[in-house]
Amino acid sequence: AGRFLRGEGDPHDPSDVERVLTTTTRSSLHGYDLVIAAPRTTSLLLAMNDLFAPLIVSAHQEAVKASFRYLEERAFVSRDRRQGRDIYTSGTFSRVASYTHGVNHHGDPHLHDHVVFGARLQGATVVIDGLSLRVHIEAANAIYLAHLRYALGRDTPYVAWRSFQGIEHVAGLDEGWRSLFGGHHVERGPKQWWHVQNIRGRWE
Question: Which H helix or E strand runs over 87?
Fold first, then answer.
């Protein structure tokens, strides 16, 4: 489930992942864990059809790449103050790791990625500007959702669409499926790690 979006290495080797987390001697911030998640309606498709599940995951991962590419082009900048002025410098990361998960800790379908990147851009002397990143998160999410809808329609028989109220839908998806995995409930018990066989049994 792990891969490198930038650079090379083994995403399951702690030493390789540690090299992703770049910082400076003046900062205690080493990196970010950016969660990019599919809408619940898309995640539910994983539980409904084993045949198309790999294509749905591929569409999600493609959309994650598109979203992160936007952030690299617009959001990742270093801010350095010189002679009373803020100087902003854009840049890229030499290593970025990403991990795809299909469930949450309660065993519900929840397709999402943890994109792990450092606090310092390649060649920079200061960490990235957190405000700039936050400003662009909403646009990056919109790009992710748009690309996901496009890739699902291209590669699967499912048609995803967005209402004027901003709610993500999948054409023909029985709304009763939502009630089976209704989101956050205190009655669901403690969080736990799930094995794939346990998940298949739960979803059946």
Answer: strand 85-90
